[in-house]
Amino acid sequence: MTRHLSSADADSVLEGDNLDERPLLTLGDLCRSCTVHAEWVIELVDEGILTPAGRQREQWRFYGSSLARVRTVRRLQRDLGVNLAGAALALELMEELETLRRRLDGGPG
């Protein structure tokens, strides 16, 4: 039996220490938490922006970090008119920038 998370539960996932350790969210959970359509999330998977665990869509489970990625892509599209390929590149560059900042601050990178 699959346990579905409420929006509040899904948002609390962001407060966890290790968001990438285990898949927590179903496709429906992710869509409800981010108020997006499943078809759009599927496009994000096809573009390589999200990588769910599971082979079939019915088995997909998303990591807590997917919440932030979905919200960032949505903002990039809404505010800047960026397409999905551009959003994927922007996310990659933003993550690289964060890694470099952590290194400069002496943290793990």
Shape: globular
Highest CATH level, the class: Mainly Alpha
Stated plainly, the CATH topology is called Multidrug-efflux Transporter Regulator, Chain: A, Domain 2
Strand percentage: under 5%
Which sheet architecture does the biggest sheet show?
none
- Percent helix, as a range, is 55-70%
CA distance, first residue to last residue: 38 Å
Which stretches are low in confidence, meaning pLDDT under 50 for 5 or more residues running?
A: 1-7, 9-17
Number of structurally distinct domains: 1
How many helical elements? 5
How does CATH name the architecture? Orthogonal Bundle
Number of strand segments: 0
Provide keyphrases for this structure.
mainly alpha; Multidrug-efflux Transporter Regulator, Chain: A, Domain 2; 5 helices; 57% helix
Give an overview of the whole structure.
With 109 residues, the protein is mainly α. It has a single domain, classed as Multidrug-efflux Transporter Regulator, Chain: A, Domain 2, CATH 1.10.1660. It is built from five helices and no strands. α1 crosses α2. The longest helix has 21 residues.
What's a quick, concise take on this entry?
57% of the residues lie in helices and 0% in strands. The chain is mostly helical. It starts with 6 loop residues before the first helix and ends in a 5-residue tail after the last helix.
Ordered list of secondary-structure elements with their pairings:
Layout: H1 7-13, H2 27-34, H3 38-47, H4 65-80, H5 84-104
Helix pairs in contact: 1-2, 4-5
